[in-house]
Amino acid sequence: MTNKVSMVIGSWGSYNECNERALGSKWLDFDCFDDWDEIVEELKKEGFELDGIDEELFVQDIEGVPDEKNWDYVHPRTIFELIKKSGVLDDEYKYDLMFAFCEAESFDEWERLVEEYEENWDRDIVFYRNMTMLDVAYEIIDKCYDLEKMLGRLSSYFDYAAFARDLSYDGYIETEYGVLEIR
């Protein structure tokens, strides 16, 4: 599965003391944990003193999420619960859509949608995965119009590139991951 989110968690206490845990935990794969309490148990097994020096945690490193966010002031529990709530770990389509949406809008806007709609955060988004704007233009025309019937022999002169360009004026956004229509 390609939709894997992993995090290294550090603690400010250990970081400031420059002790053996200053480098943080091992990589923790979110799909291996059902809830935050399981991560807490894993950190305790690694020697974290969560009722003492290690009570103030931070995201030391993270992979598998759009990298535009500054994680310095986000508690690891917050991002873990956000990712779990979004459903992106269980659905490759949603995982790719998360990256496309964050490229087109922002991680903060994606986070707002997840907080508001949880796993249905994508309810007002159409995602043409791995397609260009020109691909989408061909798909829309083929699905919605019978150019042969409408234009006869002139249908071969239809300008799909111009139609694709005009889609961007109607709310379609091309990203590295595909095209979005945000309604």
Q: How would you describe what is shown here?
A:
- By secondary structure, the protein is an alpha+beta fold.
- The protein folds into 2 domains: 6-122, no CATH class; 127-182, Arc Repressor Mutant, subunit A (Orthogonal Bundle), CATH 1.10.10.1190.
- Helix content is 42%, strand content 16%.
- The chain has helices at 12-17, 36-45, 76-86, 92-104, 107-117, 133-144, 147-151, 160-167, and strands at residues 6-11, 28-29, 57-63, 125-129, 172-175, 178-182.
- The strands form 2 sheets. It has a 3-stranded antiparallel sheet.
- The mean pLDDT is 90.
Keywords, please?
single chain; 183 residues; alpha+beta; Arc Repressor Mutant, subunit A; 42% helix; 16% strand
Q: Major sheet: order of its strands? A: 2-1-3
Please work out how many helical segments DSSP would assign.
Answer: 8
Q: Would you tell me the structural class of the helices and strands?
A: alpha+beta
Number of strands: 6
- Order of helix and strand elements from N to C terminus: EHEHEHHHEHHHEE
End-to-end separation: 29 Å
Kindly report the average pLDDT value.
Answer: 90
Content of β-strand: 15-25%
